[in-house]
Amino acid sequence: MNYKEDDVLYMFTDGFTDQFGGPKGKKYSIKQLRESLMNVHKLKMSEQKTQLGNSLDNWRNSLEQLDDVLIMGIKF
């Protein structure tokens, strides 16, 4: 694969999408994760980490974390 400067490759476990929360207590969907990644992909990697962490914390609200959460991003 040929990557261009500023392309980002993300790898992640299902832990992020398996977290319950939101107004209806549902799982954080893969669609929602994809949208979140699209919203942060142009930020510095440290800022992406902060934004994604805040997004998950806001989603879970007071619900306990159920699974491990791993998102790894590589910026070219």
* Helix content class: 25-40%
- Uncertain runs: none
| Spatial extent as radius of gyration | 13 Å
Strand order of the largest sheet: 1-4
* Total beta strands: 4
Task: Provide mean pLDDT, rounded.
Answer: 93
Largest sheet: 2 strands, antiparallel
**Hey, roughly how much beta strand do the residues contain?**
15-25%
| Bulk shape | elongated
Terminal CA distance:
12 Å
Order of helices and strands: EEEHHE
Number of helices: 2
Total domain count: 1
Classify the secondary structure makeup into a structural class.
alpha+beta
Structure report:
- With 76 residues, the protein is α+β, with helices and mostly antiparallel strands.
- The protein has one domain.
- It is 36% helix and 18% strand.
- The strands form 2 sheets. A two-stranded antiparallel sheet has the order 1-4. A two-stranded antiparallel ribbon has the order 2-3.
- The longest helix is centred in the C-terminal third of the chain and has 16 residues, at 45-60.
- It is elongated, with a radius of gyration of 13 Å.
- The two termini are 12 Å apart.
